[in-house]
Amino acid sequence: MTDLPFKLGDRSIVIVKDVPVLQCPDCHAYLLRDPVMANIERLLESANRSTELAIFRYAA
Ligand SMILES: [Zn+2]
């Protein structure tokens, strides 16, 4: 699990905490499974884009 930042438009950043990720064994990049990405997209859609920084906790 890790905390991931997502940019929303020019000004807003959303940090999602405790995201369950897989890590590439070769380059250590974080990989998100499709259902996890779908949940995060729902979170981001609910975020207020006029807020510069928002922090959510991922909950499956
Ligand atoms: Zn890789």
Automatic annotation (TrEMBL):
Name by which UniProt lists this protein: YgiT-type zinc finger protein
Q: InterPro entries from the xrefs?
A: Znf_MqsA-type
Source organism per entry reads Polyangium jinanense
Highest taxon of source: Bacteria
